[in-house]
Structures are given as structure tokens and as C-alpha cells.
Amino acid sequence: MKPASWTYADQFVAEDEILETARGRAREVGVTPIGAGGGATLRFLAAVLDAKAVVEIGTGTGVSGVWLLRGMAADGVLTSVDVEAEHQRLARETFSEAGFVAQRARLIPGSALDVLPRLTDGHYDIVFCDGDKQEYPAYLAEALRLLRPGGVVAFDNALWHDKVADPSQRDAETVAVRELGRTLAGDEALVPLLLPVGDGLLLAQKI
């Protein structure tokens, strides 16, 4: 695929001023949110599943949260976890600007691996992971507990800056993301898919 075609596909669903503003906030605080193509995928996934309960690891400034909420059921609730309370404050501004009432987003400050064990087993339609790459395997274990049958786990940065496909790249983050992909691909209890949108979006449905 030519780069122009890839860019065309990745930007096929345009972002509005609300998302552009949220991206501006992300740049100011040094956060890299999911790309437009990945965000559109999350919205599509939430809509197809008629998602009412979603967990997000990595709130950022609300870019991925807006995409998810726009696809979720009208009474759906997004539970988002982030170690940076200031980022979550900015995300609340984004959600408000997008027209979502406060009750639609439950923002929990703290480490994902401290917070996730407190959430309800089998209750969630989607678990979206965009946190510490070295913790991705641990996120997967928690996600499989949290998801209902038919629910989907999604991992951003699944190509990790073009490093995952290059076997010579052996840094800890690349190895963790690469091994995660192998785990999902080899698990017969999952239906896996790797999409080359943005920096890669790895999905798996829990059978």
C-alpha cells in the first residue's frame, strides 16, 4: 500500500473541533493519544457491540474517551484509569465540551494494576489499553476477567513505532508488545485481529 493510501484510510473519518482541541491539550502535557483511524475503530467497535460498560487504561486528555463514548449506548458508562490526575481533569473538560454529562465517565486516578482488580468480573463490553507497554500482558489478564463473553480487548501501539515487526528490536517495551501479540494469536479462547491503523491496534474477542 502506498503511503498516500494508508494516510487516506487512516484519516477517512475526520475529527471535529472537540477532538482537535483535546489533541492540543495532549500536546501541551506531553501525551500521545490514539490516532484518528484508531479512534474511529473504537467508536465503530463500541457501536457494533452496543457497549454499555467500557474500561479504558490511559485517560490522557479524553481523545479516545470521546471516540468510545460516541459509539457507546446512550446510557453507557466509560470507566477510565490514569496515573495523572491532571490529565483526567483535562479529559473532563473534553467530555463536557463533547456534550457528555459527568455521569457518563467515571474517572479513577491511580495505577491500572491497582485499580483493575477492584472492578467487577464479566461486566464490561470493551477494555481498551493504552498505558505502560511493559504492563500490557498484565492488562490482558485483567481484561479477560473483566470482559463478558463476546467482549473485546483492544491494545493501542501494537506496532510500536515500527519496532514490533523488526526482530532485531529487543528493548523491553517492544518485546512486551510483540509477546502480547503472540499470546493473543495463539489463544484458542480468543478471536484476534491486528489492524495497521495509527501505530497499530490489536484486538481480540473473548469467546
Question: What does this protein structure show overall?
Answer:
The chain has 207 residues and is α/β, with parallel strands linked by helices. It has a single domain (3-206), classed as Vaccinia Virus protein VP39 (Rossmann fold). Helix content is 42%, strand content 21%. The chain has helices at 3-10, 17-29, 36-48, 63-71, 85-97, 112-115, 136-146, 172-186; strands at 53-57, 77-82, 105-109, 124-129, 147-156, 190-195, 201-206. Strands 3-2-1-4-5-7-6 form a seven-stranded mixed β-sheet, sandwiched between helices. Strand 1, helix 4 and strand 2 form a beta-alpha-beta unit. It starts with a helix and ends with a strand.
Topology, element by element:
Blueprint: H1 3-10, H2 17-29, H3 36-48, E1 53-57, H4 63-71, E2 77-82, H5 85-97, E3 105-109, H6 112-115, E4 124-129, H7 136-146, E5 147-156, H8 172-186, E6 190-195, E7 201-206
Parallel strand pairs: 1-2, 1-4, 2-3, 4-5
Antiparallel strand pairs: 5-7, 6-7
GO molecular function, one term: O-methyltransferase activity
Pfam families: Methyltransf_3
Organism: Nocardioides mangrovicus
